[in-house]
Amino acid sequence: MVSLIKQLDWKLNFAVLFLIAAGLVTLASGQPDLFWKQLIFAAIGIVVAVTFVFLNWQSYANYRGAIFGIYAISILLLIIAGFFAPSIRGTRGWLVFGGIHFQVSEFAKLALILVFAKFFSRKNIGIAKLSNLLGSFIYFLVPAAFVAFQPDFGSALVLFCIWFGFLLVSGIKYRHLVIAIIIFSILGGVAWNAVLEGYQKDRIVGFVFPDRDPLGVNYNVIQAKIAIGSAGLLGKGFGQGSQVQLGFLPEASTDFIFSAFVEEWGMIAGLLLVLAFAFLIFRIIRIGLDADSNFGRFVCLGTAILFAVQFIFNIGSNLGLTPVIGVTFPFLSYGGSSLLTNLIFIGIIQSVFTRRSI
Predict the structure, then answer these.
(1) What is the pTM of this model?
(2) What is the number of alpha carbons within 13 Å of residue 327 lying toward its C-beta?
(3) What is the mean pLDDT of the chain?
(4) Which H or E run includes 60?
(5) Contact 19, 333 (CB under 8 A)
(6) What is the secondary structure of 227-258 as a DSSP string?
(7) Rounded to 10 degrees, what is the CA torsion of 105, 110, 115, 121?
(8) How many Å apart are CA 185 and CA 107, to the nearest integer?
(9) How far is the C-alpha of 39 from the C-alpha of 4, rounded, in Å?
(10) For the chain, what are the domain ranges?
(11) Cis omega before residue 210 (within 30°)?
(12) pLDDT > 80? residue 104
């Protein structure tokens, strides 16, 4: 066990621990009750991640039933949550076990990346075939449809980005991508008229017109910009952020935790946070490129896609560069399900790293 731990990519570990610590400090300042919950989930997640390091995922990948069994379980959990779970904050996306809430869409992201890693590791040479494209699309569509039914269109969009990202890294021809973009543009128009709720349309319109309804749909983003803009280079200090402490910044523990962090620790600390996350993505991609198997390579690249997409949407919403879709900042935002799932990804990636050829 000691020798295996020594073989871990500690550069990756330090980046993860830095992001988790930054999130815990931010929670301790603004919402100390959430700090202790997140700390417990972090401890559990690290133990689970270490356990996953000892699993040889390449051997599991050779058994089709193991990977697709995980995928099937994720679909079953989505069905149970969508039809039987209590409504929490307007969605039926959580399974409740005592006082613990588990967001099943997080497990769906894990399952989808594993099944895509298995699928694309075998099909990437012939991915341009229509049958393979449709097959991969169906794997995405099934969980995405149940997630959208909850309704959680933010997570459904993330699932779409995972599928689209796998197509990009698998070597699909650009003309097929153009056709796919045209098709999804048409589907987007259909969704606007037949699927999206009024508040979801308002968020998109508010993004396009940032000065519209400053006390309504754009209130969160405006407060986030104020928090960042008033921080200065060094910030206002621990527990001194007015936007957070006085309750002006909504969702300061999840969607807008980056703004809360920058307000108290400053622009320089915010830049360090972004650089740490960029380094995390770089290390994951590097490990993927050095992996001995296509399965391990695609797991790493899929994880990098997931983390990067969530980072872009989260920090983009804090800066008014993307619509607010309720996506967390990986490892930074509060959320036990998200943190636990992300640490499982790190455990799998470390497993791939320790088993590479040296």
Answers:
(1) 0.91
(2) 27
(3) 85
(4) helix 57-61
(5) no
(6) HHHTTTTT-S-TT--HHHHTT-STTTTTTTHH
(7) 140
(8) 28
(9) 25
(10) 2-354
(11) no
(12) yes
